[in-house]
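If you are new to this repository, start here. Below is one unmodified record pulled from the training split, so you can see the exact layout before writing a loader.
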Amino acid sequence: MTTEHRGLRSELESLTTEAFRPELAEIDTLPTLDIARLMNGEDGGVAAAVALRLPQISAAIDGIAARMAQGGRLVYAGAGTAGRLGILDASECPPTFNTRPGQVVGVIAGGPAAMVTSVEGAEDSAELARADLDALGIAASDTVVGVSASGRTPYAVGAVEHARARGALTVGLSCNAGSALAAAAEHGIEVVVGPELLTGSTRLKAGTAQKLVLNMLSTITMIRLGKTYGNLMVDVRASNEKLRARSRRIVALATGAPDEEIEAALTTTGGEVKPAVLVILAGVDGPTAARLLEESGGHLRAALTATGG
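And here is the target side for that same chain:
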């Protein structure tokens, strides 16, 4: 074993997410139901671990929303499971919140192929992270969220360091205390979920914790940006029949209008939910609704207030 390998092994052994749990050493001999109960019990503590970091998460969201309101982008960067979770969250923003192409982006060590297979060595390259961010043209208006369960992955740490040097807002999301990733970022979020059921398998509790936090970062940012009206997804993109039906239901819930009025409003707004709601509640036509929303920065509640609605 080389000195480098010994050092890495020692580093991993010091991480909470990599800790070995002797009490589970014979888990493979247990009945399936008992293993399921153990796993479910482990998962039950993840939300509590996230709750301990809500102040840090909220501060990061406010920073992200402020930059996105000025036209900035939200970029997730990670390797393996962490990178895949970032891409998943980013890919769900256009249909849910009608975000612009490239407004929320996920980059993963090793590129698109790493979504479905392991790309050996990619996570160890800070240089690769810098190249991926340079390809996006990262600027001071953007936010880069480095995601890594260990908090030491060179790709994630390198992405945050490079983005910060470019003046971008940076967030470091990890599942170990005192991580290099959190230290490198302006906003460090360390959700310590403890050792995994399977030693070092951070797609389990750590992956669940990361998913919960990424849900918060994107969803609450979009709420702050006016992408919702109450708890209704008024910026939903109706790209298929299910979403078109959901659009009609959202307009109905927001306005209480009859079906005929809802269909007429959606027709005059080209199927866009937010202006359709404004058409009904404020009694304006489609072009006026579009203008009012533009003047209010896309915030439906503000546009309604401006019309006295």
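Two things worth knowing about this chain: The mean pLDDT is 93. DSSP finds 15 helices and five strands in the chain.
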